[in-house]
Amino acid sequence: MIWSEEGKLLHKLHEHCDEVNSVAFSPDGKFLVSASDDCTAVVWRLNATEKPTKVTRLEGHRGWIRCVAWNKDSSLLATGSGDSSIRLWKPQDWTAPAKVLLAHQSGVRSLAFSPSQDVLVSGSFDAHIMLWSEENDWATPKQTLTGHKAGIWAISFSPTGLQFASAGFDNVIRLWEFHDGHAKTKGSPLQGHTRAVSAIDFSPDGAMIASGSDDETVRLWKMRSRSIAAALKSDSG
């Protein structure tokens, strides 16, 4: 479904035959991609005044697709799957993936491109974070990060691209410094959630992180002090 800024339903798009897990607009505003448990991703062409039209269905994954990510100039789309692979697609030719990245030992649940350079960060149920780079033609991971004790569910870059956060089934949020295509741990993890952390995002100024969890709370974290600014829980009624 596509909604207006005022909360009005504009369009319903019907193409998938199972749960839709992830959607992402391309930065150039030309495309929308939707990903599903039906093992496919659908690319839609956007039009300001008309209903989006289907461009193609991306096929080839042999498991669910629960994460998609565009690079900064919309020239590359990444899809991550339960088949443990990542596929890279180019809008010039949607017929086959430009690259298939194989290194994770379990389903790939989170993907994020660096906003400052073409580095892709992937997180998996194997509890590993991998950094992939255009420098080596995406052939093998440039770096593998450990630290999480369970599967990784979410990854988010700061607006500057100088750090990113990861979160998952070990209930914590880890922060990583990012420079010249490499990452290193930045301090101790943020702790407070009592169940898996399924979503994280930096504020536009990078001063805070919001995290959503299976413990039914949203927590706001101050980056400078690494402390909880607020813990939000909606009324069940």
UniProtKB/TrEMBL annotation:
WD repeat residue intervals: 13-54, 58-90, 101-133, 145-186, 190-231
Any one of the GO BP annotations: mRNA splicing, via spliceosome
Entry-linked InterPro entries: WD40/YVTN_repeat-like_dom_sf, WD40_PAC1, WD40_repeat_dom_sf, WD40_rpt
Superkingdom of origin organism: Eukaryota
PROSITE patterns: WD_REPEATS_2, WD_REPEATS_REGION
MF annotations from Gene Ontology: U4 snRNA binding; U6 snRNA binding
Cited CDD domains: WD40
Key words, A-Z: Repeat, WD repeat
A GO cellular-component term linked to this record: U4/U6 x U5 tri-snRNP complex
Name this polypeptide is given: Uncharacterized protein
